[in-house]
Design a protein that fits this description.
Layout lengths: L2 E2 L13 E6 L3 H5 L1 H12 L4 E5 L7 H6 L4 E9 L2 E9 L2 E5 L5 H8 L6 E4 L22 H15 L9 E4 L6 H15 L4 H10 L1 E8 L2 E3 L5 H8 L1 E2 L4 E4 L3 E5 L2 H6 L9 E4 L1 H28 L5 H5 L2 H15 L7 H15 L8 H4 L3 H8 L1 H11 L4 H13 L3 E2 L5 E2 L7 H12 L5 H12 L2 H4 L9 H15 L1 H10 L1
Parallel strand pairs: 1-11, 2-3, 2-7, 3-6, 4-12, 7-8, 8-9, 13-14
Antiparallel strand pairs: 4-5, 9-13, 10-12, 15-16
Length: about 500
């Protein structure tokens, strides 16, 4: 019987003080931030372990703790024209705390003097205001609420000591992620009537650092898990797979770089000013993430399960390529030649033969992702040309069809849509249950989705012609099938 991976079966591993609190236990942070901490520990003597916080009620805390935080990371890709696969046992994660079941341990973690950093990836939907949260909740449901209470408790625990402030590194793919988080933290603190000295400490002792992350992470290799388990010799329920490429741009006060020795570890981490960070963010979010989110529904409805299969499919690859180069790239800031090369390199990364990046995993929180990653391109295209970008409109129609939860030649295959926003799932469930197949019913469905201001922050029905065009493409997708609808799209 294969041994369970943990610190009993793997002996003599280093142990470091818990200096990093990480909100989020998913594949990305484990293949990106925790891998970087591992590298800094080995190469620079950084000497930090990561205490992971399960940010929502359902998560991986039980599995992570069963393995004592250990897991294998596999990085795959092409380097100098040759295939490369690197594997590493990650040992810098100490544990995962579930604050919903063990609030006492969560509180004690905040009280540890060695804690210096907070890292987060709670998805685009995670940094948002929540009404009705109180300081005495155990814990607050929202991430900003948790952060406000966490910081206040640390402020009280250490009697406003400046050296006990925290450096907050946000990885969520929203613009100015840490600045938005800080605004919400302050808003909660004001709503709770906290003393003015706390706000001074927040400014003087803490640094909220907006960041931009880049690495494609496919996560747990379900199809090849037996091969990996046999190679490693352990039952590892947390094996994580990603690409070799990585990049992290961090906007921070100059002193933060001195405490985070990424450069000395040979990592592609850049500390940048605000202007550069905005430019880099726009390029990455609109092109790489925009290509993913703009294609996910179309590809999946066409019966394609992975990104690599999509770029090998003539129809879907053409859709993605034309959407990126004709509707997204023209309105991205930067040198046009560089932007074009960057976009081409992104599509090449999607062809990585070693990664199985499943569309159904990418589809998590697709509504909020589309708002962040694709809506700006749609609006900029309309503003610059006076026309609607037809492929992005097709993408939006496919997204609405995707949330129906059916695909196949006769829409006979059911699947589960994943979204952390239960109101989004309820909205689609209600609107699709009222759909009777008529053009009038279809338009009402599109109007309801485009008018959902909780996601879009505006009523998209007010953009001239958008409702009609999205309803038109939704009708073709439903009646003809996605591939026949794509053929009509290409025919103009």
């Amino acid at each position: 019987m294969m041994k369970q991976l943990n610190r009993t079966t793997v002996k003599n591993l280093p142990k470091y003080p818990e200096r990093i609190i990480q909100f989020g236990e998913g594949n990305f942070l484990r293949a990106f931030v925790d891998w970087m901490v591992q590298k800094m520990n080995r190469e620079t003597g950084f000497g930090a372990s990561v205490a992971v916080i399960q940010p929502i009620r359902r998560g991986l805390a039980e599995v992570i703790n069963r393995q004592d935080g250990l897991y294998h990371l596999v990085l795959q890709g092409i380097r100098a024209g040759s295939p490369v696969e690197e594997t590493m046992l990650i040992d810098c994660v100490s544990r995962c705390v579930d604050p919903y079941r063990d609030f006492t341990s969560y509180r004690r973690l905040i009280e540890q003097p060695a804690v210096r950093f907070v890292v987060s990836n709670t998805t685009e939907a995670g940094i948002a205001w929540a009404d009705g949260e109180r300081l005495d909740m155990r814990p607050q449901p929202s991430f900003p609420g948790k952060m406000a209470a966490l910081l206040y408790h640390r402020y009280k625990t250490f009697d406003a000591a400046v050296d006990k402030g925290l450096i907050v590194l946000c990885c969520e793919l929203i613009e100015d992620n840490a600045d938005v988080l800080k605004t919400l933290v302050v808003r909660h603190a004001r709503a709770w009537g906290l003393e003015k000295e706390f706000f001074v400490w927040l400014e003087d002792a803490c640094a909220f650092c907006s960041t931009l992350v880049d690495r494609i992470v496919t996560g747990y290799p379900s199809d090849g898990i037996a091969r990996y388990q046999e190679r490693f010799g352990f039952q590892d329920e947390l094996i994580d797979v990603g690409e070799l490429y990585h990049s992290w741009a961090i906007k921070a006060p100059p002193w933060v770089e001195g405490e985070f020795p990424a450069a000395r570890a040979g990592l592609n981490v850049k500390f940048v000013d605000e202007a550069r960070q905005r430019t880099v963010r726009q390029q990455k979010v609109r092109i790489l993430n925009g290509a993913h989110t703009g294609t996910v529904a179309t590809a999946y409805l066409c019966g394609i399960d992975t990104v690599r299969e999509a770029v090998e499919d003539e129809q879907v690859e053409r859709f993605m390529r034309e959407m990126v180069f004709e509707e997204i790239v023209p309105n991205v800031s930067g040198d046009p030649a560089y932007i074009g090369d960057f976009a081409a390199s992104i599509l090449e990364r999607f062809r990585n033969p070693y990664l199985r990046h499943e569309w159904i995993a990418i589809s998590l929180n697709s509504m909020s992702k589309w708002q962040t990653r694709n809506m700006p391109s749609l609006l900029d295209y309309h503003e610059s040309t006076g026309r609607l970008p037809v492929r992005l409109c097709f993408s939006l129609a496919a997204l609405i069809a995707f949330y129906r939860g059916r695909r196949g030649r006769n829409w006979e295959i059911e699947y589960q849509c994943s979204d952390n926003d239960e109101d989004v799932l309820a909205l689609f469930a209600t609107r699709w249950s009222n759909y009777d197949g008529s053009a009038e019913s279809r338009r009402m469905l599109v109007e309801a989705i485009l008018g959902y201001e909780e996601i879009w922050k505006t009523d998209l029905n007010e953009l001239p012609g958008l409702t009609d065009l999205v309803a038109q493409w939704l009708g073709k997708i439903l009646e003809l099938g996605p591939r026949s609808a794509l053929r009509q799209l290409f025919e103009g």
